[in-house]
Amino acid sequence: MSITFNAHPLLAPARDSAPALGGAPSAMASALANALGLGQTATSDVTTPAGTDTQADRPLQAGESRPRGSRPAQGPRKAGRSERGDTPRPHAREGARHQPGDRPARPQRPAKPTNPVLLKLSEMYPALFGEVALPLKRGVFQDLMAAHPEAFDKAALKEALGQHTRGTRYLKAMSEGLARHDLQGQPVEALALEHAYHALLEVFKRRHARTGEDVRATLQTRMLHMLDSSGLHRDDFAQRVRTKDEAANALLDAVLAHASERAAKDEALHRAHAASGMSVEDFAGSYGMDAATVAQSLARAALVPLPAAEAVEAPVSAQPTTTEAPSALADAACSS
C-alpha cells in the first residue's frame, strides 16, 4: 500500500585537421628536379599554384640567404601540429585531453570530532554506547554520576548524553521499540509508544533529507506494523502518537484508513470461516486463497481490541501521552 505525501559532460577541444593537398608537380619543380639529377618527381604531395613564387624551393648557394617570408615547400601538415613549428598544440599532446578523473577531487567534509566523554563511555559500556546503540533507562545520568563520581564532569556528561540520544543511531534503536537498558545492559523498562513513534518519524525525515529518497511507502509500512504491535485500537493509537506536524498526521490518517478497511475484511473472513466449519487450510483452498494469509487475517480479527472508551480494561500501559519532539523525548534518559 502506498502513501501520498504532500554533471555536466566534459567538452574536449576538437583536433585541427588540414585538408590533404595533392595534384601534379609544377613545371618549375620538375625542371629543378631534373637540374639536380633527381629526375621526375613522382607523386609529390604539394601542388604549387600558378603564379606562386617558388624561389624558396631551390637549395641555397654559398653566401646566399633565403628571402624573408619564404620557406621551402613542405608536405601535408600533421594534425595537431602548429604551423610555426613541430611542437604539438596543447590539446593534441598525449594525455592532454580532459578526462573525468583529471578533475580535482571535491574536498570532503572534515569528520566531526568525537566527544571525549562519549569515547570514554563507549570504552566503559560498549554494549550501550558502541557501534550498536540501545535505548537508555530514564535516569541513567544519575546512575553514571553515582557509579563514577570522579570520572565525569557533571556538565560535560550531560552534554555528551544529550548528543548521544539525539544521534541517528540512537533514534533508530528507539524506532524499533527496543526496551530501555540499564548500565549493565539489561532491559529494565518498556519504551513508551510515543517515544518510538516520534523517533521513527525523525529517522525517516533525516533519511529523506540525506538521500532525497521517497520514503513514504516504507514509513507507512513501519507505522502500520507499529499499530499492529501496540495492541491498541486505531483511535487510541492515534490519540497517543498524533503530533502537531500536519504532514505526519496526514500519513497517520492514511495508515488508519487502511487499517480500518483491513479490519472490516478480516472480520468478514472470520465470520465466513466460523460458519464453514472447515479447517484454515481447507477454507483457504476452497476460496483459492493462501492459507498463511488467511491464518494471519483470522488472527488479527480475533485480536482486534475495542476502543478504550468501550473496553472494560483498555490494554494501554500507564504512561503519559506527549507530543514532544524526538530530541526532547530522547533527553529523558539524561535529564538531571
What's a quick, concise take on this entry?
The protein is mainly alpha-helical and 336 residues long. 44% of the residues lie in helices and 1% in strands.
How does the helix and strand content classify structurally? mainly alpha
> Sheet with the most strands?
2 strands, antiparallel
| Global outline | extended
> So what's the CATH class of the domain at 113-192 and 319-336?
Mainly Alpha
**Which strands sit side by side, in order, in the main sheet?**
1-2
Give the helices and strands as they follow along the chain: HHHHHHEEHHHHHHH
CA radius of gyration is 41 Å
Number of strands: 2
CATH architecture of the domain at 113-192 and 319-336: Orthogonal Bundle
Unreliable spans: 1-25, 39-53, 91-96, 310-331
Query: How is the CATH topology of the domain at 113-192 and 319-336 named?
Result: Fertility Inhibition Protein O, Chain: A, Domain 1
Q: In which range does the helix fraction lie? A: 40-55%
CATH H-level homologous superfamily name of the domain at 113-192 and 319-336:
ProQ/FinO domain
N- to C-terminal separation? 44 Å
Q: How many helices does DSSP assign?
A: 13
Mean pLDDT: 74
Percentage of β-strand residues:
under 5%
Account of the protein in words:
The chain has 13 helices and two strands; from the N terminus they run H-H-H-H-H-H-E-E-H-H-H-H-H-H-H. The chain has 336 residues and is mostly helical. The protein has a two-stranded antiparallel sheet. Residues 1-25, 39-53, 91-96 and 310-331 have low confidence and may be disordered.
